[in-house]
Design brief:
The complex is a heterodimer of chains A (about 280) and B (about 325). Chain A has helices at about 5-20, 25-50, 65-70, 75-110, 115-120, 125, 130-145, 150-175, 175-185, 190-220, 220-225, 235-245, 250-270, 275-280. Chain A is mostly helical and about 280 residues long. In chain A, helix 4 (about 75-110) crosses helix 12, helix 8 (about 150-175) crosses helix 10 (about 190-220) and helix 10 runs antiparallel to helix 13 (about 250-270). A two-stranded antiparallel ribbon of chain B has the order 1-2. In chain B, strand 1 and strand 2 form a beta hairpin. Chain B is globular and about 70 Å long. Classes of the chains: A mainly alpha (about 280), B mainly alpha (about 325). At the A-B interface, helix 2, helix 4, helix 5, helix 6 and helix 7 of A face helix 1, helix 3, helix 5, helix 6 and helix 7 of B.
Chain lengths: ~280, ~325
């Protein structure tokens, strides 16, 4: 085959592949399979919650709201859900001021051993969660505070705080410090500058961080499993102990709360800061 | 009209508050807010430092506990011993679980990072915004659904009458036992780890200059060559970050081995939990925990050495490296 005909053939080939979705057929197929793989468990749980009768079957042999009608009577699950919401809210509210202060302190001020402090703030990520659970069980045990709900909230704040610091840090980094200087030059003092310039521009980072803290708090499992006592179990722990014995569609209906929350969180994040932004932080 | 006056009043209130704070601040001695900025900086990070100190101090306590004596009646005797470490290092069953944890974690890390690379790449480069949204939703919905709910989903999918076995049933195959096997655990963990890997890799892909890829294909590289020679090397910081995050999380995983593994594919975390609550042997649990941290740290340092700190290193904007 001559060189010219070869190139024209290649050109034609590329013209065709460009019309395929994404113009990268192999990668596209691989990624399409991954989308199915990633979404499958979530969708299956949601679908099974509409299964009539006691036996979990997939695909289901009918659709009914039977289990959702029974949900309000299941006080165990309702109170566990309520506790999870409380714990997640506590953890979110506590992390907002701490995260903002830490991010500003690290970036805006000359701190000696800054690298060391950064590594220190990554500690909750580097210590495996199960080990954090053991540590907090020992410390909270010595302090005699095991069995309180706020202890669980504090524990979740400790293990997830890097998410907050991270997402605020990325915003403080993006903020041009000349803007703050301009505000000060125009006569604003530190407090005015903070509330009118600094705070609004790091707000998206705070919102992203708060959202992540809330949803992770709602979902947290292993540390909660270790440090909760039977009368303050959170919902993930209760679901775990329930599915160890049987996997009735009732639990699917309970678990669907998480599916709905996950979708809502994604929609909220998309509206507020954009999902692309979430990927950046 | 009323809403207008309310917002007016709110605005006025806001200004009055602001004036008051400034006035208050001006009454303070000058040095407080004109003192060296570093002083302020330490104060700002103090709450965060205190919060994390639970873990920092806790690691010390844990190491201390690992040298204490276990007693079946008193539980802990404050007497130093090397017994916990000796039993950890000489018991075959513990050894086996340790190596399984590390081996499976390595395997899952390679698969997850390998699968996340094309996913992250397509998410960043795809032109259609609708498609990008679909890709992003498929990362974040599972990420926000939580481990337990997803493990529950896998129990339904992989079970005897589950989706997978119904599919094989069409061809007269199976049913295969997947619950309680390593394959089941790998599937479950992979699904949890891929979103983490994508989240770590995507920022690095974002930083790749598109012109590099265009140049490569102009010079005659096909899409594979471009991906292999341009995208992968330039995404290295993301790959490093993803590898570290996926490995450390996988090595410490509890829920998936407990639920999908059904007690047959235990990881270290399951042994730690059992020594805490079934044996009440805190010193032994502490020993396993310290050992897990040591192994994870060695791995992380190894990755730092070979691939660099990658997207994990917090960029403060003023570090010149």
């Amino acid at each position: 085959m001559s060189k010219e005909s070869q190139t024209s053939l290649m050109n034609r080939f590329f013209r065709i592949t460009r019309k395929l979705p994404g113009s990268r057929p192999v990668i596209s197929t691989l990624v399409a399979l991954q989308i199915v793989f990633l979404m499958l468990p979530t969708i299956v749980v949601f679908v099974v919650s509409f299964q009539p009768g006691d036996i979990v079957r997939f695909p289901p042999d009918g659709l009914s709201l039977q289990w959702y009608y029974e949900l309000p009577d299941e006080s165990r699950y309702i109170s566990a859900l309520w506790r999870s919401v409380l714990v997640a809210t506590f953890c979110m509210l506590l992390s907002i001021p701490i995260g903002i202060l830490a991010a500003l302190g690290l970036i805006r001020y000359d701190i000696r051993f800054e690298k060391a402090f950064q590594l220190y703030f990554l500690l909750p990520f580097t210590v495996p969660l199960v080990v954090s659970g053991v540590i907090l069980l020992i410390i909270f045990g010595e302090m005699g505070v095991i069995g309180n709900l706020w202890t669980v909230g504090l524990a979740l704040t400790i293990i997830n705080i890097p998410f907050m610091i991270w997402s605020v840090t990325s915003r403080v980094n993006a903020l041009d410090s000349e803007l703050e200087n301009a505000a000060k030059n125009l006569g604003a003092d530190e407090i005015q500058t903070f509330f009118n310039v600094t705070f609004p521009s790091i707000m998206p980072g705070v919102v992203t961080g708060a959202l992540i803290m809330f949803v992770l708090g709602l979902n947290e499992f292993i540390v909660s499993l270790i440090i909760t006592t039977p009368d303050i179990v959170t919902l993930p722990v209760l679901i775990y102990t329930s599915i160890r014995t049987n996997i009735s569609p009732l639990i699917a209906a309970v678990a669907s709360v998480y599916v709905i929350v996950a979708f809502l969180a994604v929609i909220v994040a998309d509206r507020l800061v954009g999902l692309d932004e979430l990927l950046q932080s | 009209m009323t809403s207008n006056t309310i917002s007016n009043r709110l605005e006025r209130l806001k200004w009055r508050l602001m004036d008051k704070t400034i006035e208050l601040k001006q009454r303070l001695p000058q040095e407080i807010y004109q003192s060296p900025p570093s002083w302020w900086g330490y104060l700002l990070i103090l709450p965060g430092i205190l919060l994390v100190s639970f873990l920092f101090v806790g690691m010390g306590i844990l190491t201390y506990y690992s040298f204490l004596t276990f007693d079946s009646i008193e539980f802990i005797i404050y007497e130093f011993t090397l017994e916990n470490w000796r039993s950890f290092l000489t018991t075959d069953a513990y050894y086996f679980i340790f190596f399984r944890t590390i081996g499976l974690s390595l395997f899952i890390t390679i698969l997850a990072v390998g699968l996340a690379l094309p996913y992250a790449y397509l998410t960043i480069r795809v032109r259609s915004s609708l498609l990008r949204k679909l890709l992003l939703i498929s990362i974040f919905v599972p990420f926000f659904t939580g481990v337990i709910v997803r493990a529950y989903g896998w129990l339904i999918i992989l079970g005897q009458n589950g989706l997978v076995n119904s599919f094989f049933g069409i061809f007269g195959l199976g049913p295969y036992r997947l619950i309680g096997t390593e394959i089941g655990v790998i599937i479950g963990l992979l699904q949890i780890m891929i979103p983490f890997a994508i989240i770590m890799i995507a920022p690095a892909v974002q930083n790749i200059d598109r012109a590099m890829e265009l140049a490569a294909s102009n010079l005659g590289a096909n899409p594979f060559q471009t991906f292999y020679h341009i995208v992968i090397p330039l995404a290295k910081p993301g790959i490093a970050g993803g590898t570290i995050v996926v490995f450390t999380i996988t090595a410490a995983t509890y829920a998936v081995p407990a639920l999908i593994g059904g007690g047959r594919v235990d990881f270290i975390a399951n042994v730690i939990y059992r020594s805490l609550f079934d044996l009440s042997n805190y010193p032994l649990a502490a020993t396993f925990s310290v050992a897990l941290v040591i192994v994870a740290s060695i791995f992380v340092l190894g990755i730092f050495q070979t691939l660099g700190s990658g997207t994990l290193g917090v960029d403060t904007g003023d570090s010149h490296e």
